[in-house]
Amino acid sequence: MRSTVKIYPRKSTFTHHRGLHGGLSLPAMGGVSGGWHRRLQCQAGSSEVPQRKSPATPRTARQLKIPGSDSDSLSPNPTSKTPKDKSPKVPERRSPRSPATEKKRPSRVSELESQLVQLQEDLRKAKDQLNTSETWKRRAQQEAEDTKTQLLAMSAKLEESQQQLMELSTSEDVLVQELRKISHDRDKAWQSELEAVQKQHSFDSAALASAMNEIQKLKGQLEMVAESEAAQTKHAESAHAELQGLRMELTETLSLVEKLKIDLSDCRASEAQALQLVSKTQKQLETANATAAMLRSDGIKAMEAYNSMSLELEQSKAQIRSLEELVSKLQSDLANSGVKNLLSPTGDVEHAGESGENEERNQLKEELNSLKFEVGQLRSALEVSETRYQEEYIQSTLQIRSAYEQVEKVKLESGKREAELEAELEKAKSNIEELRANLMDKETELLSVSEENEGLNLKIEKNQPHERESELAMEMKKLEHDLAELKASLLDKETQLQSVTEQNEMLKMEVKKGELERSKVHDEAVTLAETAKAAEREALVKLGHLTEEQIIVAEEQHE
């Protein structure tokens, strides 16, 4: 009896699963299996002999819609045709195989071999499709690498990029799970279909085994696709790490900007201190000028005292001269009286002369005593004036010396402070130059980052929300505002530095002027001291002459 072959293929669609980056995953093998089952059904129907047409056993099978090469023409929810109800097979009508069917078995084997060849061709087509999908995967990988290179400059979008990367990783995991589930479901479907085919066609076991091998290959290819997606995930993680590095660089840049601001504030504070020191040195110069004026007035007072003392000395000298004249006159009178006594002839005359002489002697003694008293008073007055002059001279010399030392001290302090101010100015200039260089570097970095961000904004405009773009624009505006403030502060710093240099030049001129005045005061003090010394020497000479004259007068009186 001739056997009938009834194949009920499972309807499947040739679907393309779009990958993460626009690539294609492996196509379903339903089209291949559907075409193979359809050819088996057609050949089985054509091999039947028209001698046995039994109306009681209709041969109906579900027809399979074969998908075309284009996956876009398929509907997303295909409906499978319901197979017609099979009429029950009547066992009484089964007859033993006829010799004609036995003769047609080799022809069926050849047909099955041709079907196997056709199946291999379909499998090769599937391999080609897999190769195309691999090319799409490589292209997607290349696009992912391009995206990674583009993401290097997205320093302002780190948080949302991290969220997007997490979402992408979760979506990739979900996609891998879906692919594995689909492959698992397809494997189950294929196994069920193959088991049904094995139950119905035990003689096609070799073909089914080869089909299973191809299925295993497809599984390996699916695993390779999953591995490639895992590699893409790793690339995304590396891109995330690079974005974290860019975020750290951005924080370092912001910290450097804050440090530059702190340096500017420190420079301003140092300039304020320098101005305070300038005012302090000016006050010291004013005090030095006041002390010089005071010393000048003290010198004038000393000259006046010297003049008064010289007048007193002249007066005492005149008195001494008058006393000397008086003494010489008295001596001449005494000599004349002695001569008269020698020439007188009578005793009465002698007695009268002696009494007159005694009176004159007494008078002369009184005058000499009075002269000695006056000379003692003059000598004590001279000693007092001399001690007073020496004390005033010592005091004036001490004041001049202290003023000179104070002037030297002020000069040294002003020179030292001037050197410190010059060092601070040089340091401030170097700091400003360094700040300017850092500012230029940051400007170039910001320009490059802004250009890269503009390019990336044009490329990732589809994936990024408008809120993040507005935040990025606000951050860029903030950075530009900070840069403008830094430039303005730098200009203010330069103007302040210029004003400080001008004040320093003015201070140098005032210091030079003060030095000239101090040298002038010193010269005046030196000349005043020299004149005082000359006056002292002259007074000492006069006093020596006076004492010598007094000694001579005393010796003459003693004789």
Average pLDDT score: 67
Helical segment count: 7
Structural class from helices and strands?
mainly alpha
Helix proportion range: over 70%
How many beta strands in the DSSP annotation?
0
Region (Disordered): 43-113, 124-143, 339-363
Coiled coil: 411-517
Biased composition (Basic and acidic residues): 82-111, 348-363
Family: Belongs to the ICR family.
Describe what you observe in this structure.
Residues 411-517 form a coiled coil. Belongs to the ICR family. Keywords: Coiled coil. The chain contains seven helices and no strands. The chain has helices spanning 30-46, 99-103, 105-150, 158-200, 205-343, 347-459, 466-558. The longest helix has 139 residues, at 205-343. The protein starts with 29 loop residues before the first helix and ends with a helix.
